[in-house]
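BUG: 3D viewer hangs when loading the predicted structure for this chain

Environment: internal workstation, default settings.
Expected: structure renders.
Actual: progress bar stalls at 90%.

Input used:
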Amino acid sequence: MMGIVTVMIAFCILANVDSAFASNADSDWSFNLLQNELSYHYTDTRVKDSDSKYYFYWSGSLNTISQIHIIPLGRKSISGDRVPCCRQGSTAITEVTAKNRGQYRITNYVKENGYSYACIGMRGAKGSGTASGKWSPDTGTNYPILY
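Structure tokens produced before the viewer hung:
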């Protein structure tokens, strides 16, 4: 009996640890971006589990795209309105710019502003072409931060 109880307690602890960052699995993104375009391209919408930063990996580019404007967005539901979450308590649109391919963390206030879902909006900044990579709404990694 004691062995069963021990196994059950261990399972509960492991289940809680795993779910703490359940939304840190990577999702692919790929967009054709134009220099200085006005409209955004959006990643898929995912559950945001914590107040951690987003993970953003810009892995590849075709043609002349060399900078991307990025905005973290929150949603109340999977299909709700996308709201900029760059600052706590503010919906003012503020972007960050990835000036090179690489792996980053993106500061966001999705959970702090009361949203349960997250996505990223991207638009071309410098150059035009196809950019691709991965992202997740939660990360515990230590990559450079895009504010």
